[in-house]
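Everyone, carefully examine this protein record:
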Amino acid sequence: MNALLRRRGLPLLDRVRYQALFDFRCATTMRGSGSTSPATVSRQLSVEFIAGYEARRLEPALHAGAAEILATVTGAD
């Protein structure tokens, strides 16, 4: 998200502000962060966000203990 904001000269988001603004629709989050993009630009923002997400989606690591929790939940059928 900050990459989109940076390219448009808008203020960047810290974790707290991002979590307060987060919405699964990229355009909603962008409007909350100061962008007043029209619908056509909002659609482009969404496409751009997803492209960036897809390019880096395997980089994050799970939080400590998450794998064990997931294994427990999966085996709880």
The chain is about 60% helix and 0% strand.
